[in-house]
């Protein structure tokens, strides 16, 4: 879990994407909020969703596997609900798709 969290945080920091990290281990309120806000169809069959779970404000964006897939497909900004910066690979792909 820690390695996945570091992977997400490292990507966000490297790309200067602002974020707020919520500690669910030390803060029961954060843990409860995460569990309540992960959509039913994204929860495991048993138990609780494991971190990292990614949100844009209160909008659920996905788990680590969804983040990893978006990163592999140069679609992280879309995954996060953000506009890709001009000149990025993702912006170039979006421009080609719109042409």
Automatic annotation (TrEMBL):
Per UniProt, what is one Pfam family of this protein?
SH3BGR
InterPro entries listed in its UniProt record:
Glut_rich_SH3-bd (IPR006993), SH3BGR (IPR051033), Thioredoxin-like_sf (IPR036249)
Primary subcellular site in the record, as a coarse category:
membrane
The molecular function GO annotations come to: protein-RNA adaptor activity; SH3 domain binding; ubiquitin-like ligase-substrate adaptor activity
Q: GO BP, one example?
A: positive regulation of cytoplasmic translational initiation
Q: How is this protein annotated for GO cellular component?
A: cytosol; plasma membrane
Say if the entry is tagged with keyword Transcription. no
Task: Tell me which Gene3D superfamilies the record gives.
Answer: Glutaredoxin
| Keyword Kinase among UniProt keywords | no
The record, for SUPFAM superfamilies, names: Thioredoxin-like
Which stretch is the leader sequence?
Answer: none
Q: Where in the cell is it found?
A: Cell membrane; Cytoplasm, Cytosol
Q: State the UniProt keywords alphabetically.
A: Cell membrane, Cytoplasm, Membrane, SH3-binding
Q: Which family does it belong to?
A: Belongs to the SH3BGR family.
Q: How does it assemble?
A: Monomer. Interacts with PFN1/Profilin-1. Interacts with ERBB2. Interacts with ATG12. Interacts with BECN1. Interacts with translating ribosomes.
Function in brief: Appears to function as an adapter protein that bridges proteins together or proteins with mRNAs. May function as a ubiquitin ligase-substrate adapter. Additionally, associates with translating cytoplasmic ribosomes and may promote the expression of specific mRNAs.
Q: What is this protein called?
A: SH3 domain-binding glutamic acid-rich-like protein
Q: Specify the species.
A: Rhinopithecus bieti
Q: Provide the organism lineage as a comma list.
A: Eukaryota, Metazoa, Chordata, Craniata, Vertebrata
């Amino acid at each position: 879990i820690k390695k996945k969290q570091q992977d997400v945080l490292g990507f966000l920091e490297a790309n200067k994407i602002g974020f707020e990290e919520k500690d669910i281990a030390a803060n029961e309120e954060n843990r409860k909020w995460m569990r309540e806000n992960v959509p039913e169809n994204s929860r495991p069959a048993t138990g609780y969703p494991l971190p990292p779970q990614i949100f844009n404000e209160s909008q659920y964006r996905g788990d680590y596997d969804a983040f990893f897939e978006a990163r592999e497909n140069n679609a992280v900004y879309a995954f996060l609900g953000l506009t890709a910066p001009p000149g990025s690979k993702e912006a170039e792909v979006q421009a080609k798709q719109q042409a």
